[in-house]
Amino acid sequence: MRLRSLQIILWIAATAAVITFLAVRWWPATDDTATADSAFMPTFALADSEGRMRTTAEFRGKFLLVFFGFTSCPDVCPTTLSEVAQVMDDLGSAAGSVQPIFISIDPERDRRLGLDDYTKAFHPAILALAGSEEDTKSAAASFKIFYEQEADTSSPDGYTMAHSPSLYLIGPDGEWLRQFTYGTSAAEIVSDLLTRL
Amino acid sequence: MKHFLLATTLIFSAPAAMACETVTIGDLTVEHAWSKATIGAGRPGVFYVEIKNSGTTDDALVGITTPAAGMPMLHETVVQDGIASMPHAMSVPVPAGQSVQLAPGGYHGMLMELTTALKEGDSFPVTLSFEKSGEVTVNVDVLSLRAEGPDCADAGQ
Fold this sequence. Notes:
CATH class of the largest domain in chain A: Alpha Beta
Number of domains of chain B: 1
Signal peptide (chain B): 1-19
Organism (chain B): Gemmobacter nanjingensis
Radius of gyration of chain B: 16 Å
Order of helices and strands of chain B: HEEEEEEEEEEEE
Shape of chain A: elongated
Oligomer: heterodimer
InterPro entries (chain B): LpqE-like (IPR007410), Lxx211020-like (IPR058248), PCuAC_sf (IPR036182)
Protein name (chain B): Copper(I)-binding protein
Number of helices of chain A: 6
Keywords (chain B): Signal
Helix content of chain A: 40-55%
Number of strands of chain B: 12
Strand content of chain A: 15-25%
CATH topology of chain B: Immunoglobulin-like
Strand content of chain B: over 45%
CATH architecture of the largest domain in chain A: 3-Layer(aba) Sandwich
Low-confidence stretches of chain B: 8-16
Number of strands of chain A: 9
Radius of gyration of chain A: 23 Å
Structural class of chain A: alpha/beta
Number of domains of chain A: 2
Largest interface: A-B, 32 and 30 residues
Largest sheet of chain A: 5 strands, mixed
């Protein structure tokens, strides 16, 4: 009889453990996805071309159009920069509410080549940031983007960068709003932005 | 005099329209060769072009050379699983009866070690080497940094 009640207690304990495990395993996960849109607040703290530290906090109140790239990239990055420049032109008087930010994932070389000349040639509104390796890694991790240096003898200096080419839209309170995948037209981005401004 | 003026105008406006000129070699038609202005010469330039193969034999673009760059190479932009990378392309297939484009977001020539910065309105020659058809030289128009392609009436853009 004692054995039997011990068995019952053990069964209850085991069932409770399973329920607890499942609850822990699944509930927070569903919660996360349900609140991710409003709770995800990616941040950066990176130096601009003059060495001043710029952080996400100083841009509260503005929409941020953030993208990662490197200036020795001849195809993808100029295409994205051109799109962003076109977006800024097409926003007209609403452009003041949007801050486009180019974050270098190749900061050492980009600082050497001159960062500001490059992005400003596309559009003067684009703010270029190139932090330390460490700060760049933190920013990328915070935005959940991937980048990696790849050895490549057919590229300048023997390496190229693989990276997430999307544009990320951050809201005036610092919250993640959406991404525009590579190739999204300036017109589409503008019409999305105009619904929010 | 009128004709002289017209001719002069045509000559001076020719560079802007060069990207719209067509060069042929064997069954291949090469047109819409263009590039983008660069900021300085420290970063690579880019080369885009359209190649049509009206023959019955597959061909391939296997290399490019130009006096404008010390190390011109063929690359391909590949976006896979949300990551963009740019592998070196050993060759760009030009199948029989088909057209291929070296265009933004795909195959492109990467012009490394530029001899000078590329300025909008400039043009420079690029020699394309094909596996079967041999070599052909096209004049490449340097368009603005933000250009999406040459403005030709028949451009496949």
